[in-house]
Amino acid sequence: MGLVTLLVFRRGVEYFPIFIGYLLLLWLAGVVFVGARKNLARRAPRALSAAIDYTVQTLLHGLLLFLLPIYYASTTLRSGNAWLLIALVAAAILTTIDPWYRAVAARAPWMEIGLFWVGLFASLNAALPLVGLPSEWVLPLGGSASVLALLPAARQHLRWSRGSALLRVMLGAALFGGGVWWARAWIPPVPMYLTRATFARAVEELEPVEPAARISSQEFRAWGLVAVYTAIAAPSGLSEPIYHVWRKNGRTVGQMLLTTIRGGRPGGFRTYSWKTDLGADPAGVWQVDVRTVHGQLVGRVRLIVTAS
After folding, report:
1. Helix or strand or coil: residue 298?
2. What is the pLDDT at residue 232?
3. For residue 288, what are the β-bridge partners?
């Protein structure tokens, strides 16, 4: 299922809303099973209880498999926003290997609820932009809603009263919603991802001219300017302002706010920026970070300029 998602997602992001609907359906079915399992286990024979446990694990596994390729596409691996992808990979491995999953579930009953919470937060993070929600509300609302969804589980496992559970979960939802907004630079900007990014001598008719990943200082100076071309894929209906942050050897040397990208274009929405001030000694590692207007990292492209 994960491989199918990856193949279709790469070929046509217009199918993405179908996957999001399926993810939320998986999450809802899993939560219903988790909530009803305790009562069913009292009345059901051992074989049926084992089947219910396996169903919960299978729903978790399916949810995580569908999320993995979506987050893999949007994650910049050598950056801070890789942590959520790592968490999803670890959870997918755990739900794949039955002895590990059973051992952890026996020792930590909250583990399943935690996994469904991760799955819901990751799903809402990808789904809310598709219904026209402004990007500045996606993370706070997704974070808060994913915590509020834990209310039935909190009452059942911690035996809180209805009023106490509601108050505590609402407070937790507000704190977590604010927390994920504060840490937004560490969260992948799903469902956007780079389809192509390169340094080039110029960009003509929205196509890079003489793209390069490594170049000599002499040739670099002969260019006179250097451009960065990026193509960003996003589903139809999604729009987001982005900007390029230019760095040389880790030091910021420029920042350019670009146009608002609009989803639905095959191959991604194309845009570019350029720099004419190359400095007296251009040798080094040039890097451009593609970020949303709120600071989430969409992708990164590098150019190595050698001394000779």
Report:
1. strand
2. 93
3. 246, 301
Burial status of residue 274 (CB atoms within 10 A of its CB: 0-12, 13-18, 19 or more)? middle
> What pLDDT is recorded for position 76?
94
Name the packing angle between helices 83-96 and 110-127 (round to 10°).
Answer: 130
- Of the candidates 227, 32, 199, which has an alpha carbon nearest to the alpha carbon of residue 112? 32
Q: Residue 193's beta-bridge partner residues?
A: 233
User: Strand ranges (DSSP E) for the chain?
Assistant: 193-200, 202-204, 207-209, 214-216, 226-233, 239-248, 251-262, 269-275, 284-292, 297-306
pLDDT reported for residue 124: 85
Tell me whether residue 277 is exposed, middle or buried, using C-beta atoms within 10 angstroms of its C-beta: 0 to 12, 13 to 18, 19 or more.
Answer: exposed
User: Mean pLDDT across the stretch 113-120?
Assistant: 81
Task: Give the Cα separation of 280 and 52 in Å (integer).
Answer: 68
For residue range 56-73, list pLDDT tens digits in order.
777 778 778 878 888 998
Query: Which residues lie closer than 8 Å to 271 by C-beta, 6 or more apart?
Result: 229, 230, 231, 232, 242, 258, 259, 261
Q: Which two tokens stand for residue 89?
A: 């990979």
Round to whole Å and give the CA distance between 28 and 119. Answer: 11
Pick the closest to residue 233 from 302, 139, 298, 288 (CA basis): 298
Contact present, 115 and 60 (Cβ < 8 Å): yes
| Residue whose pair of structure tokens reads 């009345």 in the numeric block | 43
Domains by residue range for the chain, with CATH: 2-186 (no CATH), 193-306 (2.60.40.1930)
pLDDT given for residue 35 in this prediction: 62
- Mean of per-residue pLDDT scores for the chain: 83
Distance CA 107, CA 307 (A): 58
Q: pLDDT of 258-287, one tens digit each?
A: 888 887 787 889 999 999 988 888 999 999
